[in-house]
Specification:
This protein is of the alpha/beta class and 279 residues long.
């Protein structure tokens, strides 16, 4: 994967902004002081331990959770000022929540992404169908178009949901752990698709990830979510470094390798764990 050279900030509009955002559940704050400024053509990745609140931030940005404090702006307008239809023209969402369908093919699911662009009857035009096929071919799932969505693998469903988000043609794509369930080939493929979207269509992407080596390759900016706060954020080359990662995950110094972006294990004795288990 290669990261395209970006224009200076001043030449690109701000698609997503949060100001002193406070997120949580049932009126109880979980994380405060979430400040984001995401421009067209940028990828921001949230990293941090499980349960730190990455998904909560994404759900609040997407309008699935009401913020406890602060504000979210989409294309310069307050989030609460959008109708569901108008927001779907600006922002598409792919969360970890499992979508349950009955008797829908994979093509049917991707076609849902076109509904914000159709009339009230939801009738797709030839142009809509062309965009559905284009999105499915982009993530290599066109061959699954007639398959029952509930009878394919988790990894295939993940790619179908990304195709639906792409078919929606939003300005902003929100992705919660999009590489879950994918083998390494499709992880790389999915992230390459995101970089092409960002480069060719000026889409803005905000997502969460656990794979630091991949986040390091694909992201422009990184936000570290830990406990009740954002402990660091900035350009990827300043954030995915040993001192920040060690603190974020409470690692011993030297465990994170900045060259590979991977975690280094202690040397195992000859035979390793496999040798122990074979006795």
């Amino acid at each position: 994967m290669t990261r395209e050279a970006l224009q200076p900030h001043g030449q690109r509009p701000v698609f997503l902004e949060t100001r002193d955002l406070v997120v949580g559940y049932d009126g109880s704050p979980l994380i405060g002081h979430v400040d984001i400024e995401l421009h067209a053509g940028e990828i921001l990745t949230l990293i941090g331990p499980n349960g730190a609140g990455k998904s909560t931030i994404l759900k609040s940005i997407a309008g699935h959770l009401e913020p406890i404090g602060g504000a979210v702006f989409v294309s310069g307008e307050p989030l609460e000022g959008y109708s569901a239809h108008d927001l779907s023209l600006e922002l598409s969402v792919m969360l970890t929540d499992r979508m349950r369908t009955e008797l829908l093919t994979c093509a049917d699911v991707v076609e849902m992404g076109r509904y914000p662009h159709t009339g009230r009857l939801g009738i797709l035009t030839d142009e809509d169908r062309r965009k559905v096929r284009e999105a499915m071919e982009l993530v290599h799932v066109w061959d699954l178009r007639d398959h029952d969505f509930m009878r394919i693998s988790d990894g295939q469903r993940q790619r179908i949901m990304l195709a639906r988000a792409i078919a929606q043609e939003p300005r902003i794509i929100v992705l919660d752990e999009p590489t879950n369930y994918l083998d390494i080939r499709y992880q790389i493929e999915l992230l390459n698709v995101l970089r092409r979207l960002v480069s060719s269509r000026d889409v803005a992407v905000i997502m969460s990830m656990h794979e630091l080596s991949l986040a390091r390759k694909v992201s422009d900016y990184v936000m570290c979510v830990k406990g009740d706060c954002i402990c660091a954020q900035g350009p990827v080359e300043e954030i995915i470094v040993p001192e920040v990662i060690d603190d974020l995950y409470d690692l011993e110094p030297g465990v994170f390798d900045p060259v590979t972006g991977a975690i280094v294990l202690d040397d195992l004795p000859a035979g390793g764990a496999a040798g122990e288990g074979a006795r």
